[in-house]
Amino acid sequence: MKILVIGATGTIGGAVADALAERHDVVRASRRGPVRVDTADTASIDALFADLGDDLDAVVCCAASGGLTPLDSPSDETFWSGLDGKLIGQVNLVRRALTHVRDGGSVTLTSGRFTEPVPGSSLGYLVNAALEAFVYAAAAEMPRGLRLNAVSPGWVRETLVALGMDPSPGSPVAEVAHAYVDAVEGDARGRTLTVGPV
Asked: Which InterPro entries does its entry note (predicted)?
């Protein structure tokens, strides 16, 4: 299969691209690098698909980042700063992928989760819940046998180590990558695949 992995320079995206590349032809895209895309910019998504053509078998988006955002942020713009890329950007990616992924192919998005609410997590909860609801409902609208799913990783062990935090609550990135491989190679439709402790 020919698979586009967006966010391939990140911890999760790199591991996903490597895992899929063991059996498939992988195109690695990111905001920086030889193949560029910014999911918050629809023109950037359009340009990427125009360059790659219509012979993709799957699209995987691992570029959904978003940090903690305080509810009392000083401005609306600051509060909503993570919305465009993680939620709206991934929805726009799905809408554009409809005409560029081959019959029976798949699109896999990235949600996420917290083990419990913490200060600054309310927007993350909102975005993740909305994205998972979108995947569940939009899967029924996908044409030509296309499948739509999401992967919801918790903390990644390698990320916790890089942040100087206790890595024990995290899942190894290879385990997270396996969930994306399952979404691409399996037959799931409209599901959110969770990784790590719930």
From this structure: NAD(P)-bd_dom_sf (IPR036291), SDR_DHRS6-like (IPR051122), SDR_fam (IPR002347)
What proportion of the chain, given as a percentage, has pLDDT over 70?
Answer: 97
Fill in the DSSP letter of residue 156. B
Longest dimension (CA), the chain: 48
pLDDT digits (tens, 9 = 90+) for 8-24: 999 999 999 999 999 99
Q: Which residues touch 56 (CB under 8 Å, ≥6 apart)?
A: 2, 3, 4, 27, 97, 100, 101, 102, 105
**Counting runs of H as helices and runs of E as strands, what totals does the chain give?**
8, 6
Rounded Cα distance, 94 and 76, in Å: 26
CATH topology assigned to domain 2-195: Rossmann fold (3.40.50)
Residue with tokens 């918050």: 40
Of 110, 192, 184, 99, residue with least CA distance to 147: 184
To the nearest 10 degrees (0 to 180), the angle between helices 89-97 and 42-52 is 30
Q: What is the mean pLDDT of residues 157-176?
A: 88
Identify the burial level of 151 via C-beta atoms within 10 angstroms of its C-beta, where 0-12 means exposed, 13-18 middle and 19 or more buried: buried
Q: What are phi and psi of 180, to 5 degrees?
A: -65, -40
69: CB partners within 8 A, 6+ apart: 78, 79, 81, 82, 120, 122, 123, 124
